[in-house]
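To start, one record:
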Amino acid sequence: MKHMKSILVSLAILALASCSSDPVFHGMTTQQKEHYAKAVSGEYTGNYAIIYSDGSSDTKSEKIEGAQVTISDQTMQSVFFHNFPISRLSLVVKDPALAEALASLPGIDLTATYRFFDLQDNGDVSWGYNDFTIPLTLHVDNADRHLLLKVSNASTYYRLTKANMDAGTPFANQDSFELQFDGIYEGSTPIEDFSVWQDGNAAFLVFFQIDNKG
């Protein structure tokens, strides 16, 4: 019996040691969010990497150099993707008239709100941005069409380490920010669907790749 008790105590100690090494996640206070938002705010340069399929079996890609993203502090809680090449969506839109209208558009600024998901005991934090919708007014077939371009990012978050934030390079361990385009809607009706990545369906995925050497 004494031997059995010794084994049980040893197992309990091992279990506690194992649990203590696992990361512990916490909610964040307003003050902590302000502190971490200040650490991530700033201007970031890089490029847009566009990966798309027009419904064929081939996946295509394109890179656009000289892109810029601005992240605000907690006051606005925003991510601004500057001069986004919205015209590239014409590559995957099936409606010829709609594709032609998109192709003529200049670059636009995309704005997303961000949030902090949780904070670890070691000071690392999970950060990401929310889904957002871009209103588009396009002149198609001699008439204005008021459309919505939906971008989905709610399931994407980035682990930012305290060491990188203290060093002033919060995204040093990140390759890119992902933008997943769901589709184009007219009101609540989808007219172009980019959410399914398989033969016969168009898809449009963009990464803002940060130049961490700058």
